[in-house]
């Protein structure tokens, strides 16, 4: 299997005639969009809306192709300055659309879209998104102010975000016991090593290395969040969370129900941390460096071919279409597999809608967690393929629902392995690996939510230092992990290494992961009750994510996410694995 992804399906390079032609077409479309808003007329509203939406469809198609190519190149090499330069040019070009977008959105503000949808199939198709535009109009500044704010973001929060990305990707770290320096992504992957000595050395080297860049990255995060806090009242939002909920098409009642349930059930997860600590010989809770320590006797490092076979086996047990998607991804170079210096850390999936494909980035080192990551990210690819049945502008789904298909795939793999393995020592490995992932999405995500809430609650005039950020993070970990973590070995710099915090336009990129996990667990429970019916309804539910609220998507599967009871039930489903974990520890005489 080729370990790098193929981007030539888009362009063969920046001198590719298709790339040049698409750049020219973007400029033409911008002119057409700008000309179209000059003709906006409420007496001819139907034609005006139809024309704009058709132009928007084509513009999105071309601009996303251009952006995807450069962003994917940069993801595997943050020092690809040609790609970074092209992205910068595209960002400047996009500024030319701001005024037209503002004018069209404001044009929709007082229209009766329900009535107009009776006269137009286009408006009927895009009624949900058009109504969202109407909501956005309530939070818009004047035309000139919107243009100014957009341009200032390029040299404000966007630049601060780029700084964090470059500093962390280029960080070269010396870990005791290793001859050569490593990139941050590789050092963080050592948290899964079988040797406690290696895990602890990597943890200490990681924390020590952050000292080189902590002040710069703290300034980046501080200024991004200050920009957010300046803009929120100007736009008429209560705060950043209010905006995020609106962007997420989700009610605060749903978020409150979920967070309340997590806090109520957190003690059970702390029991898991303490059980693991006891099994590993720790007396005062689990040190952060051992959160991902492998357990049991399945001390296996998977090759990418073995990982592929596992993923496809699990996908095939669910549906033929999911299996075929996974097979195509592995065979047609959708995946950039291995870590390397200059490559972005973590993992992600990016859809290439124009080609009915996706691209997946991983930093695969062979751990069971890495296999789970592959199953997870290719779940995103499946979601992306299913929503291609929707009209072009109805394919974007909000953050909370973005994890739906990926968590389903991850759960399918974990549960199948748990059901298939009979040796208690091997089963311990699988159950504990699943609990690692789940506890991160519940407890660590809670800590991230609490941390970001603390940062955003600070007065705009107060600049936050690296020590402030570390203090807030430790407080958040105390509130979420409690006595489950060893107080001497926490991770004060979790704010520095997580790119999710570094976007002024995407705040609280944390609780959607908890939503995705717990919503996915709830869906999996439904799947177990009637697999055939569930699979028949599943794809339509995924399509609904593009043009329904979070609550309505859930209701389409007979789930009420505004009620705490649903979240408690999903959490207790995870807690069954905590009970099994304790049972296996006793059976294997680990405690």
What does the model show?
By secondary structure, this protein is mainly alpha-helical. The chain has helices at residues 17-37, 45-76, 81-108, 113-117, 121-125, 127-137, 143-155, 157-169, 184-189, 196-210, 214-235, 240-247, 252-279, 304-318, 320-331, 368-386, 399-402, 404-420, 424-456, 466-481, 494-497, 511-529, 531-544, 550-555, 564-587, and strands spanning 172-173, 182-183, 335-336, 348-352, 357-361. The strands form two sheets. It has a three-stranded mixed sheet, sandwiched between helices. Strand 4 (348-352) and strand 5 (357-361) form a beta hairpin. The radius of gyration is 24 Å and the shape is globular. The mean pLDDT is 95.
Write the layout of secondary structure elements.
Elements: H1 17-37, H2 45-76, H3 81-108, H4 113-117, H5 121-125, H6 127-137, H7 143-155, H8 157-169, E1 172-173, E2 182-183, H9 184-189, H10 196-210, H11 214-235, H12 240-247, H13 252-279, H14 304-318, H15 320-331, E3 335-336, E4 348-352, E5 357-361, H16 368-386, H17 399-402, H18 404-420, H19 424-456, H20 466-481, H21 494-497, H22 511-529, H23 531-544, H24 550-555, H25 564-587
Parallel strand pairs: 3-5
Antiparallel strand pairs: 1-2, 4-5
Helix pairs in contact: 1-2, 1-3, 2-3, 3-6, 3-7, 7-8, 8-11, 13-19, 13-25, 14-15, 14-16, 14-18, 15-16, 16-18, 18-19, 18-22, 19-20, 19-22, 19-25, 22-23, 22-25
